[in-house]
User: Fold Kinesin-like protein from Triparma columacea.
Amino acid sequence: MWLQNNSVDGSSVSSASNNRNAWNSFTGGGGSGGGVGGWGGGGGRMRGYKASSPTGTDRTADSSMMSGRSFGGPGRAGRATPSLSNYNNITTSRSRVKVSMRVRPPFKDEIEAEGGKFYMTMEVPERTKEADLGIVVLGHPRSNKRREFMFDHCFEPSTSQEVVFDVIARPIVDDVLRGMNGTVFAYGQTGTGKTYTMGILQTIKSANSKDAGVVPRALQQIFSHRAENALTMEVTMSFIQIYCETIQDLLAPAIDYRGENETAGNLQIREAPGKGFYVKGLTEYKITSYSEAEGLINLGLENRAMAPTLMNVTSSRSHTVLTVKVVFVGPGVKRSGKLLLVDLAGSERIRRTTSSGVRLSEARSINASLSALGNVIAALAVDNKHVPFRDSKLTRLLQDSLGGSASTALIATVGPAPVNESESLSTLMFASRCMHVKSQPVFNEEIDYMDMCAKLQVQLASADQTYLKKMSVESEKYETIIHKLAAELKNARAGEGLRSSSFGGGGGEAEAAAKRRGGRRSSFSTSAAVDTIGIVRSIGKGGGFGEENHDGVLGGLNLSYKMLCQCADESSTAVAKFYKWVGIQMEELKAKEKREEAGEGIRSVEAESMNKNDTLGAGLKKSLGPHLQPLTKKESRSRVEARFEGIELVDMEPTLMEGNHPELSEFENVEALMSYCEKLLACIRSNGEKLELGLWQTTEWFLNVKEELVSVNVERRGREEEVVNWSFVLKYLLSTNSKLRRKLAGRGEGVGGGGGRGVFAGGGDPNALNTRTKMAVMEDLEDEAVAKIQAGFRKMAVGDDAVKMRGGGGEGEGGAGDSLVGTPQIIAGAAQTPRTGGGPMSPSSARKIIPDTAVASALIERVKNMTQEDIRNLPPGSQTKVLKLRTELGLKELPIEAAQPSFTITPKVENRGRGKKEKEKKIKKKKKKKKKRREEEDEGDEEEESSDEDYSFVK
Ligand SMILES: Nc1ncnc2c1ncn2[C@@H]1O[C@H](COP(=O)(O)OP(=O)(O)OP(=O)(O)O)[C@@H](O)[C@H]1O
Assistant:
């Protein structure tokens, strides 16, 4: 859209209107928000920035005024996109001077003079070679002439200072802070806003104010920059003006301490190799803050040559160059960036300025230098070999910036009035040429490696303490881990030692260990290895073997690595040992079974005993034969097979690491070490699993085998116990059988001795007998022994057998007593007091041994109730026994004369005094009876003998 003058945006042109004092109503052009025609072209490009004052009202009015015009039109939407063919040779802005155009808001007098008809439109093409390119179309409202220019940016009049800075200057300052040279210069007709754009029209105060231009904002950006670590930033500043081809130091007093300062008013440009052109004698101020810079610039602005011209009451009559050098210094590094902020004097047609005298010569000088600048640009634009930098002081000073090694941006300013058309065309053509000036910024960085090294060493030394402290903490951490590893390794070794000893020890400890584990799966400790991997990983994350790694850490790592290797090796050894042991055990067990199968072992003892050609042996054989049938071969084999059933040791080969472990220093990098450690860990895990599996299997197997063994042993012991029990029975029988006693007398061994030799040799726990066996034994014992004892007591009670027992006492000593010691339980609770002496048992002892309380009670009753007469009638030995028993029973002895018989044993009394024949007859009869009874008992007759007719208790 066209600019119009029928509305007002006081804020955007306030300074202009105030200065000119004539304009009070002006709209500062189309808004960026519209983006349709007019200045909105720039606004379209600027989408996202805050536009100052565009309104729809402005555009409506503007479009009505534009109707009928041959160029322009109501807006971009209604017009064809300008041809871009002319701009195809424009290279990307990254490798050339960046050019933008800014249109000053019209003054009031311009609006009045032109009637709101202006000559320029801006557009952003639909598609451009570069997305940020903008097009300005220049034409005259009253002619068909039309020129199109394409720039990097086209700023409408309402574009804020902030936007211009951000788009144009901020990237240049960024480059300077990175160590490149950068230049921002404003070029344009006088009075079009160069000084305003650069922000040095008046004294600068705050970079944050709305009107603050490039200079204050750039300084603020520099001082808010934070230098990288280890680099210090130094900023120096100089400020000159080129006035009528003289270079003046705006920051040096014109009068020095000697009275005058000649050099400050006319500085010379010199050239030095590696330094390029420089201003000799220029004062450079080191500044550390924005406020310092502000003070200096304001001082310089006071010194700046300004004079009102017809076109600009605040016209700058000189080119001003503010140079800000930013140097970053670090260990061995010097990086420098130079920022040139150039506010060129305004180009002008001398006739329009109506200058004369000094003003005229100023204008000529300005035009001459700008002309030289134009020539330089023209030469650069077409890549001329000769670039006339020396033609003016300005071009010489800008050589660094335009010569291609700096990052350069040009802001071309134009006025909006048609009256400025030719100057604007000239400016746009100059700017357009600049679009072709190549620029390839370079970094200004000097690196002194020696110096860097020395300084780093100093830094390192100073940082060493902190570093060491940090490393000692790290070290402690690793030490803790290493100690833990060592402890675990020790435990693992101890565990292995335990297993090793049990490996050789025959399984007892292995079983015990399995029991202690309570069925828990045993495991080879892999946590140590895992921790080591953790250390390696953490080292790896920390940068591997770089300088930053402390020796201590590497030492710790080395130790951990060694331990990991050791773990892997030992795990392999442990597996090998384990399986070897299992193999041996299995072989041994098989061999043992085979021996047993062949008839060796304990059965041979039994067989030996039974085969003895003596009464005892014969008796044993007769008594125990049925119990001691040897196992058949088939039975033995099935037992062996059962014991080895279920054991499948799948993989007996340990996992091994091939070859010797490399040294830590042999690894190329952390990754290689990590990879090897992972392999070690895999080896340890694999071996651990094999051990676990093996232990698990063998534990199960042993438990099975043990159960089998126990059942066999129980059976075997059962047989042993039966031997014992029967032996006891036989012993007792011996004690009552003089014939047997006589046979054994003088041998020095009784049945008890036999027991000591073989029967009790196992020392087994009779409780381990199963109930069935126990009961059977008990029943047999009771049936056999109790019956005999009862019979003996009965005889004793009648008196005659008591004599026999007493009489035989001397013969059987040492026979029975000892064997009772090992078998008290068999006669449950009876043998409270083991007998150590020999001879026939006393009634009291017999009572203790014999569980038949009925018999004992009868006996006791009998003794208690005996009268003196009864006792007197007893044989002398029996009298003593009875009296002793009575004493034990706590009975008061009656005087024998006074005693009344309580019962009468008639047959004995009656038979007393009978002849020898009768007596023998009786004995024969008894023997016959006894024999008969024995035969019955041998056949398992369980009948009670209480109905023995021979003996009767008479009350
Ligand atoms: N974008 C703008 N917005 C508002 N006012 C502006 C703008 N540009 C310039 N002006 C005003 O226009 C007047 C002239 O501006 P300035 O002095 O910056 O022009 P110049 O190009 O530097 O002129 P010279 O070359 O003569 O010094 C100043 O009063 C300034 O405030």
About this structure: Residues 768-938 form one domain. The chain has four domains: 1-159, 161-447, 469-599+632-709, 768-938. Residues 485 and 528 are 5 Å apart (CA to CA).
